[in-house]
Fold these 3 entries.
Entry 1:
Amino acid sequence: MEKVILNAEIREETGKSKVKELRKTDLIPAVVYKKKDSVNIKIQRSDLFQVLHTDAGENVLITLKVKNDRKKERTCLIKEIQRNPVKDNIIHVDLNEISLTEKIKVKVPVHSHGDPEGVIKEEGVLEHVMWEIEIECLPTDIPEKIEVEVASMKIGDTVYIKDLVLPAGVKALNDAELAVLTVKPPAKEEAAEEVSEGEAEEPEVIAKGKKEAEEEEAAGEEEKPKKEAKEAPPREEKKKG
């Protein structure tokens, strides 16, 4: 796992207005958490940018050096990054202080390697069902990514959590039976199958409706004479003599 140094300062500025002014000076407000304790800090935007643009991404292991802090340095992981919903620029960062000797839970991305046989020869589609998985390990053992070899996959083949090859000391926390990658049939073929299934079901519905109509018609014919007989006026008897 890549480890980088990030310099920061203790932050006295609190409240919306002061924090807003702080951002105008290219400083990012941040908080370092350790269990129930927390420390308010501020970080240069350019320094944070460099930290986030390593191969480890947001899982980068940070050696935080805070000026005038009671600790010379803290080992941290990024907990959360808040962004402006319009401009998408970073407006706040939360960090977790961790111990290098205690296992932690993090999410890491899943990458496919190679071109599936089912895509090249059968025009199938490789679908990423899960783009990241949750793992547990020591901070120094966090992998940058979980790579899956997919070259031999054919249409219908699926890679599950239980099939992933993980580095030593790394444990997957997701359900072992969850699908991660699968090769599906071509889109046109799937559409054709759906249409053919729909056509196969339709005659049954029509046939059922026709049969019901015939039964109703027959029942109506049986009831009709009875109704007419009931409504017919009584015949007058002829007088004798």
Note: The chain has three domains: 3-97, 104-185, 193-227.
Entry 2:
Amino acid sequence: MSFEPGQDQRADIAITNLADRVQYLEISAEKIVSPGVVPEELFSSPNPNEVGLLVAPRRITLQPGEERLIRVILLEAPSKTDKAWRVLIMPVVGKIESTSSAAAINVAYRALVFARPQTPKVGLSGHRDGRVLSITNTGNTNAMLHSGSQCAPGDICAEISGKRLWPGMQWQVELPTDAPVQCNVRGPGAEQLIEF
């Protein structure tokens, strides 16, 4: 989910209970301290103003087949580069009643939410060293590289994995051949095809 400059600063995440039992969920927001840095460092606080993002409600009970919306409200003004958060949707396990051995599998989700700067600009530069392609985002907002391919003579194409590149981030990928690489880039406003 992205908050674009000049657009509404609130959005919804729809969640549905596909299980055959009641689900209890806790929802919280965590700020990503430095987007793109691995391992990801998250900051959390019970005060939404300190995190910069408000999620509501904080607790949800979902009946089987029920769908509810989580409201996400951006509390911070745009800055010079992207700001990013994770919205944690965590199941709360209750008592399981069974006449035999039982197990319940619960999965938590961390949805990515980011706010682009007031004047977002993606600047991708790439260079090759043999079969190693290095791509750097020199802009001030993130770009998602996806549906990449490298086609050798004879129409034999290899798929190139995708990657989200945050501002200042560099990504290297080893290529199967010396042929050009084409990637779709999803950034602010539009999608474009680039070649390296």
Note: The longest helix spans residues 48-51.
Entry 3:
Amino acid sequence: MRAWLILAALAGCGDNARGSGQFEVVGHTDLGARGMNAALAVVGSTVYVGSRIDSQPILIVDVADPAQPTVVGEIPGAVGMSSRELRVVPDRNLLIELHMRCAPDLHGCSPTGGEPEGLQLYDITDRRAPKKTFFYGISGSRLQPRSPHEFYLWRDDARVIAFVTAPPAGPALEIVDLLGTGAGPVKLTTYDPRAEGLESAGIDNLLHSVSVSDDATQLYLSHQQGGLVVASMDGTHVALTTPPAQALYWGGPIGPHSAVKVPGRDLLVVTEEVYPMPYGTGCPWGPLRIVDIADPTAPAVLSTLGLPENAGSSCASTPLLTTFTSHNATAERNIALVTWYAGGLQAVDIEDPALPYFLGELRPEPLPSVLHEDPYLGAVPVEMWSYPVIQDGLIYVIDVRNGLYILRYHGAHEQEILDEDFLEGNSNL
């Protein structure tokens, strides 16, 4: 197997020399070359991989030998529905699937069929034979539509809580106790920052994602038109810490996509997802930003970082149906791993948050063909998409088109990754 390992080394001298890094491909499976893969969940020697298209299963992959990942089972899909996001709580033998309708135009899904949207729970005591246990529905009405879009999984010794964004209508955030009672998950509360005056307008007027502090007292809300805000949580009461007038919005057509807390530092790694027209504003694509939240009432951008393809000067040479935009991040103290759609997987040095820089990247060699090409973003056959997952020093990441990659990082700050038992940007597990 051959992969494109591109080293981004920036020259320097003496004490000012910048570090560099590279990714080693330990293992890869093309997942049957099906294409349109979605997020992954990693638990020990098993990986679950969802699908962005309907009628495709959640695939079960054995990674006991990381060099030879092998599909060993599946959870059937449904017409009109995608398994967009997955999380696992190992000691509870719990797999959570975000079960949502997928679009015919964006994803190539069936215009008919469909099921209620929400969170599907599975018992994975037998990792290769998950059993459905409970379903928690999330919906709105015909005039006030709501759809589960992303969720952050938070837990302590007693509780497992899902913070689910459900745009576009309010309430935009639904907080669910997944353990609940013997009868299934229980809603704890709902919240919408627009009720506190967060004003927004435009093509992406929605609360896109949420992340949560380790003690669950702060929420980091990425509203794509209202801006980035910090909210406080006391029990089931949620309120803005950042006044609406101080929401962090950088004036572009699209605002924050997701914000991931940097461990042990008052910093967020913030992405900006920009799609091609007509579902987005097109090139120039969204960069990465490092945000200071030492004062949560006034988040501040410390720095902005983009690939060469993020520059406006690249737009004339960029294919129409693709995007080179920052998407999902997992952050260690001094290094962030960021999926960047056609820009591959990027390792970013954030030791100095005012001067981040690229350490290295992986843009995998595309498969010759896949069963389901992305109907909207397939012009460049690389589409790194998921939150990277670190387990026992290895990095697991999904390319929508090309499958599951298991990587080892070498270079600046590599020990932070090697020492990590488990880390992902969308949970506190």
Note: DSSP finds two helices and 30 strands in the chain.
